[in-house]
# Entry
Amino acid sequence: MSDPRPAPLLTLRGIGKSFLGVRVLDGVDLDVAPGEVHAVVGENGAGKSTLMKIVSGGYAPDGGTVELAGEPRVFRGPRDAQRAGIGIIHQEFNLLPGRTVAENVYLGHEPVRRGFVDRREMLDRTARLLASIGETALPADARVGRLGVAQQQVVEIAKALALDARLLIMDEPTAALADHEVELLYGLVRRLQERGIGLLYVSHRLTEVFDLSSRITVLKDGRRVTTVDTATTTADELVRHMVGRELSSYYPERAAPEDLGPVRLTVRDAGNRKLRDVDLQLRAGEVLGIGGLQGSGRSALARALFGVSPFTTGDVTLDGRPVRLRSPRTAMRAGIAYVTEDRKGEGIVPRQSVLDNALLASRAVFAARSGRAARTVRVRELLAAVEVRGAGDDQEIRFLSGGNQQKVVLARWLALNPRILLFDEPTRGIDVGAKSAIHDLVRRLARDGAAVLMISSDLPELLGMSDRIVVMRDGRIAGELPASASEEDVVALAVGTVREAAA
Amino acid sequence: MQTVQPRSLPLRLPRVRPGGVLPILAILAVLLVLVAIRQPDFLAPSSLMSFLGRSAPIILLAAGQYFVIVSGEFDLSVGSLVTAQVVVAARLIDGDPARTWPVVLLLLAFGAVVGLVNGLITTRLRVPSFITTLGMFLILVGAVYLWSDGAPKGQLSEEFRRFGRRAVEDVPLLGRVPYALMVLVVLAVAAVLLMRSDFGRTLVAVGDNPRTAELSGVRVWRTRTIAFILSGLAAAVAAILLGGYSGVSFQAGAGLEFGAITAVVLGGVALGGGRGAVVGAMLGALTLELLFALMNFYGVSGALRSTVQGAIILLAVAVSATRSSSR
Amino acid sequence: MSALSLLPARRPVPGVFVALTLTLVIGWLVVLVDGGQLFNQSTTVSLLHVAAGLGLVAVGQTLVILGGSLDLSVAYVISLSTLVAAETMNGSDGALMPAIGLALAVSAAVGLLNGLLVTKFRVNAFIATLGVGLLLKGYLDSGYDGPAGTTSPTLVQTLGYQRIGPVPLSFLLLVAVTGAAWFALSRTRFGHHLVAVGGDPEVARLSGVRNDRVLVTAHVLCSLCAGLAGIYLASRLGSGAPRVGTEGLYDLESIAAVVIGGTALAGGRGGVIGTVGGVLLLASIDAIFNQLEVDAFFKQVIRGVIIIAAVAVYARRAMRKAA
# Structure
């Protein structure tokens, strides 16, 4: 390269990382110059966050080298990386809401005079630090919990700068910001650039990537696809780089038009704290895929339908009758089942047996309806039907693989004969064999007349399984796509390069 | 590359399941051997029977505490509840045999109400259960002293006392079988059946992961409140037996809550919930009583009971903490 | 962004002082109607004495609770400390300093044990300190049937009964200890780190705080405070008392005072000034009841209700904040 760029601040060469034999990163090269904003883009699961964790000392790479100002470095932990001058601003802030700005900025290295914390010095230094990045309006002794999200982000940045960070990693910095706050962040990023600080900027939102960065690296399936100069590329070209995998795996056949039954579920103008203006129809016999980025409201939609965080506005009708889904119990009685995204935290009771896990919901809600013995027989049959392998029914569930745990969770819900099934990332963290078994099962349920709503970040899965796809963005429905849509179409709607007509 | 035989080893030791009753059975066996060496006639049927009868109240309290602990909470009010029940019973019966049965029913209702209040404050008002039940402890002790002006009044009827002190005499092989033991056996079977029922399985699931339980349609607050009610009922029965056996005093229930918690922990039940068997908890109580009997045989001061309990709690919890962290 | 959110973090006057003022005013009126006088010399003095004993314990309890832990063993540490002090002094002034040193050292050792159990063995604080408390209880039960040892006369005359106007020396000791704790929390790294550990252990760890060391220190300080309270009680009673801690309900009352004083039970928010407010509130209620000659047992019932109600109010507030 003949670019007149200064010597790079950070250089990554051939970075690789595997988890449990799954290659998450493979031979990734990347460099950041002082004062440069280098954006990293890619769809969910492309390896962006793993790469950032390696740079910031959270993970050690299996292969490759991290060089800082030309020197190879091995970080033994986040503290190590911090001391070397690498700061990271997470999506979720690492701040203490009950403490002041200064106390947060200097936590762990408070200025001391004669053995005691020098509060004045701490406030002064914080004020100077804030002034140096143009944030004169933010008092150093304000309580962090009373600040807005954008200001908290400033505190995070100041915290990194107080440790003399030369390289800042920003992970989805605008995800939680309102539109006018994004403008403020832009200004801040430019002032950081002027100070010669290098920025690694991870974002899904292509608009801001184009506004801020000088170069963009695209990751896909753990590999670097390309690194381009921002000035010479377009959004469409980027999206093309991000997607485009051949549909190698097998998916069960989709529903034929005659398989589709009547409309089961209708949601009209519904919303709550995380959702706005949701309009949705779900028919018996179909698999409706829900796409979108994390935090776009996909899970909030499923949780609203299951009564966990109910809709506060709008109407829901079920088989033509209006319903109010106030709690999981009311949703279950209405025939709705929900397989959560967080299997470990919300899906299983880890130290109970497979059988107890499978019986949990029937015992809680329909205990009086059927005989105990008959119910147990039926659940055992279901466990056999979903093919839980490698365990007796009396084994504690935590010793099972993720795939088998998920099958047990499925059996729990199938025991209730649900008419509507909500799946949130049903195959995340599951091996290939169990994955296609679950795909077959989902399709079979739809064919038997259930209405299925399936959230997935795995684009091939979303496209392969769905009869129809709804893409969400910022708590609203960004658009609907037919089964024949491409990955590109989904990503474009999700990141907002195309504006939906109704916006 | 070496090929590994995919055959599992034919000789595998039965895996000791965490939360199972094997460890407590082993400890119990060791203690029995020690007792047999030191005081062989203790194991004669008649003295063994009366030992079991004497141990019935603490075993029942351990079962009650088990329901609360396995669902993820604590009940520190049971000792004071036993005291309150005994004092209330003496004053209400006041030696009149005709009042025995109404008062027994009243005590059961009283225990259930105290459990209900504990449960509702803990689950609905989100007060940590140790504060709820310690506060209840203060209220009960204060109320019972207040009500009886500082000294127990009245007396229990002979009919009331027979549950705790009488026995069926001349049973072949066993000698005398205390009523308390019979009550214990019936309630222990009921407790085991309860834990096998839908409610019992749900109760353990709530202690294991309340989030999952809630999302599977379980009303977590209701389940936990019922556990507190069961603990209150167990305290009522324990009070009836204890009052009969050792009479009325303000010390009737002192420290029993710690005994019950120690027994539950000793029985392999995880503090914080989700693991352990009610049989383990009851065996834990029996083991603890046997240990105290043994200490007695060896002339160790009974006042050291608390130290033994504290040591058992710390040891059991530290062992399970290090074991789970090594995984 | 509203202007309000940019106000500097002046700590608001904790609600407890409002409650304290109201209680005193209402109590004064009620006592007056009853034909008594709440603020005469002897009531004030005894109120401050009660506050001094509970306050010393509660200030220590504040430290561990701020750090996200808890100490249920304080009641037994107090009893133990009265005995160690009184027995070592054995009625003579000569052994005064060694006795105080020994009592504090024994207390600190208990705190160290608590701290190590909570951090190194990762035992839940409630269980760990309950277990340690039972260990001590057994020792006290087996070793002592009643009062033992004799407190040095000098200590009884000074810490026990000396006062400046209506203010007992012991209350000044509480003021000094509170001041020191306040200073430690706001002006030392330990204090800053303790609040951080209680607020969010992960944030603290990532910022380079050594969480375990901080928590162990807090537990040692808490037990030291309880030991100091024990020395004070020995100076009041003239001897060591094996049940004074449990009968005075110092474990539950100290936790109640901390919570009433606005410190979150989950840790990370609050301070010692509020705790002293909570202590004064509890002591005032006690004094008012004494003036009204309310039955001691009725008082205990009311204490139980107040403690549960106070925690419920704060739990509700925390829940609303989270929502």
Observations:
- Chain B touches chain A through 19 residues (CB under 8 Å).
- Residues 1-15 of chain B have pLDDT under 50 and may be disordered.
